[in-house]
Design goal:
single chain, about 300 residues, mainly alpha, MetI-like fold, about 80% helix
């Protein structure tokens, strides 16, 4: 019997070794494909940076960086040319800030409700509907802002321009709610059930557990959702181009119209300017500013998540 058992053991080990040998090429192929995907994404990012830098370099040889950062006027398409990025930066930050004030509280509240309070059947219906909202073309949101939101605001606020940053920001906030909700809800659903049970065992209620246990435990994923939503708002083009206007205006009044960086890039990219001209090169200078804004946001998110993980 011992000899037969030893023979059976040797056969099983041989079978396992044969399966492992057959699996190695498959595993190596999968690893290689993942490596190529990572390298490909790095190459794409490097190519984007290369194009921005090489195309913007002639612009900064004619316009000083100091003038670009401090001039309060942006009129490269006018006879009296000024190349100050502040008006476009102001419009971008203003509309993004309004969108954040709408999307982050609303999206987080919906995510907490879906994760901790909604019944499974309700969750399976509500979450796909919210995710479908993110598939609506942004041009539709833009005309929704002009045709419905701005007239509605004009009924409440006297002398409000049809094209204003408030309407654009509000609609942008509605647009990015699904990004905040879906990713935040996934992060909270990934929190181990043991943490919830431990909280209940200590006498905490469902609301306390949701806000004091689940939310802090999922803050890393929620922070990633916030970063994605903010970056999406910073780079939004059609809503602000339609609802906020295309006139650069250095103002912090949300009731006025203004242009954003992305809206200006679209405006100049229509093909009316000759390639290689100073006016055409302004879109790459503006593109660098937009790229650096999103880069800073992502780096800040990484730093905050790392610090929170150490503290938690």
């Amino acid at each position: 019997m011992n000899g037969r058992a030893a023979a059976v053991g040797k056969v099983s080990r041989r079978d396992e070794a044969a399966v492992a040998l057959r699996a190695r090429p498959v595993e190596r192929t999968i690893e290689l494909s993942m490596l190529l995907s990572a390298v490909f994404s790095i190459l794409i990012t490097t190519g984007i940076v290369y194009v921005l830098v090489t195309e913007a370099a002639p612009f900064f040889r004619q316009v000083s960086l100091w003038e670009f950062l401090t001039d309060t006027q942006w009129t490269p398409l006018f006879a009296d040319k000024h190349f100050g990025i502040l008006p476009l930066l102001c419009g971008t930050l203003m509309t993004t800030g309004i969108a954040i004030l709408v999307a982050l509280p609303l999206g987080t509240a919906i995510a907490i409700w879906l994760s901790e309070f909604a019944r499974p059947g309700v969750r399976e219906v509500v979450k796909p509907i919210l995710e479908l909202l993110s598939a609506v073309p942004t041009v539709v949101f833009g005309y929704f802002a002009v045709q419905l939101v701005s007239p509605g605001l004009q009924m409440l606020i006297r002398d409000l321009n049809l094209f204003n940053m408030l309407a654009a920001g509000l609609v942008m906030g509605i647009m990015i709610v699904p990004y905040v909700t879906s990713l935040s809800e996934d992060a909270m659903r990934a929190v181990p059930m043991l943490l919830r049970e431990g909280s209940y065992g200590m006498g905490a209620g469902q609301v306390t557990t949701a806000f004091r246990v689940v939310f802090p435990a999922a803050l890393s994923g929620i922070g990633a959702a916030y970063t994605l939503a903010i970056s999406r708002a910073v780079g939004e083009t059609m809503i602000v181009a339609i609802a906020a206007g295309t006139q650069p205006n250095l103002t912090w009044n949300p009731l006025e119209g203004a242009a954003t960086i992305s809206a200006y890039i679209v405006q100049v990219s229509m093909g009316d300017l000759p390639h290689g001209s100073l006016e055409y090169q302004t879109i790459f200078a503006a593109g660098i500013a937009l790229f650096l804004m999103t880069l800073v946001l992502n780096l800040l998110s990484v730093i905050l998540r790392a610090r929170y993980r150490q503290a938690y």
